[in-house]
Amino acid sequence: MYQAVIFDVDGTLVDSNDAHAQAWAMAMTMSGRRVEFSRVRPLIGMGGDKLLPEVTGLSIESPEGKAIADKRREIFAREFLPHLRPTRGAQRLLETLRDQGKALFVASSAEKDELDDLLKVAGATTFIESTASSDDAERSKPDPDIVAAALERSGCPATEAIMVGDTPYDVEAALAAGIEIIGLRSGGWSDAELRGAVAIYDDPADLLEHYDLSPFRRLAAGRSV
């Protein structure tokens, strides 16, 4: 059976993907590089180290790149974070999995300080044993580094862990780290874009509603025979 469940946060436990895209677009525009929301939105789920070069050609380590990233962080904290809400059923799913004896971890491309705030929004702080953020890995999603860091902290082999995420970047990172992933549509991606997930649900509440037929139950039943 799965012993560890590794969660993404943005779009998975917190309805925040649009807010991140808006904050990035605003920060880039304020720097003199007019960027539309529609250009940034499909890239949310990557870390800033990948998103910024993709949109502007700037390294996040360059002076201008650092200035844009700092401005995005400020805008997000001031304009968007106070208004964010959990995805439907997020806390109930965490509680159910904990009660089923699963150890819960986080693998997010967010920076640690921002991640801590997002976990508070999700009501997840007391359920999560450990987190891995962009501060803990050289490369962000879709590279597997952050997921691999969370898996290492779980102490479980890859066969006993599964991820829950909402973006194609989560799927790619999980599979590259050697673990299966459940996809959620709550981040705004289609089933085709989440290809590679072992199952796909609308959101945490939908997963809970179909829990007895989910990979958690199917695997347990299959291994008990």
Describe this structure in words.
The chain is an alpha/beta fold. It folds into two domains: 4-15 and 85-224, HAD superfamily/HAD-like (Rossmann fold, 3-Layer(aba) Sandwich); 17-83, DNA polymerase, domain 1 (Orthogonal Bundle). Helix content is 45%, strand content 11%. The chain has a six-stranded parallel sheet. Helix 8 links the parallel strand 4 and strand 5 (180-184). Helix 1 packs across helix 4. The protein is globular and about 50 Å long.
Mean of all residue-level pLDDT scores: 95
Strand content: 5-15%
Uncertain spans, ≥5 residues at pLDDT below 50? 220-225
CATH structural fold name of the largest domain: Rossmann fold
What is the topology, as strand order, of the major beta sheet? 3-2-1-4-5-6
The CATH homology group name of the largest domain = HAD superfamily/HAD-like
Shape: globular
Assign a percent range to the helix content.
40-55%
